[in-house]
Input
Amino acid sequence: MEPTSLQTIWYLLFGVLITGYAILDGFDLGVGVLSLFGRKGRDRRLYLNAIGPVWDGNEVWLLTAGGALFAAFPVVYATVFSAFYLALMLLLVALIFRAVSLEFRSRIESEAWQSFWDWGFGLGSLLPAVLFGVAVGNILRGIPIDSQGVFTGSFLGLLNPYAIVVGLLSLAMFTTHGALYLAIKTDGEVQKQAVRWATPAWMAWTVLYVGATLYTFLISPWLFEGLPGHPIFWISILLALGGLLIVPVSVRDRRYARGFVASSVAMAAMIALAALSLYPRLVPSLTDLAHSLTVVNASSTPRTLTTMLIIALVGMPIVIAYTIAIYRIFRGKVELGPESY
Output
């Protein structure tokens, strides 16, 4: 059975939400990872306050994506959350710890107290940056599900070499993205450190992406079937390569905003390539591709999809407008004050 237009639209909308989250909260996670290498005191506060006004709004995209998945493709939601249960618990603990670190760090003037929450902020960013990639790697590889859509694997089985490679790729990607954002928002020693990290992180991103692509061809060759015939494939390839090439040039020229935009475009193009290679599958079955969950066999009823689409058309412009407003209000360099984290 061929996917309906509604099913395809919701596949695209879910992809847009995931892309929005990766771009927006990706630099939050990257800044947190880089904070592990920062000096104590004022510099550490700059890391926190660089993302302070926007981090919680960025996570709205993840919550919305989860809600969209539940409403549009409930079978996928049930299977994925069952398969990744322990990983998701670790992810939630890390995200909660990061949020608490932002709020608690400056409450007490104690070096031990602040150092503890600094580590919480950094590790609470590092773990999700890796786990998101591990999850994507398992989806691209396929997870063991039977003909009823029931997960038959184990948590340790999800920590396979391919998924770990993709996890390291997401870590390098978010770290590059975070370094560019930090270079935009700060000056002085913190900016210099961010710039020093940007190029090595970009190199790791590039090498790992090439390696992961070759690895994907070896273990999931079916993902590449028919791709050369899609115009979107070639457009995405050009955008991904162009974005990656512009990043180091922008860093060299000290045009960090341009580099950040290029990094965002490269990330969006790479997610588009992954989505295009999967479609119409949402969760491929490692046991038998015929058991895969697709936009057809895992979707809600047409009435539900239509109702949710109307809600999305009303809600999404509000989320986008809010995001734009917040970034405009808090544009410019970070300035520490009495109300800062």
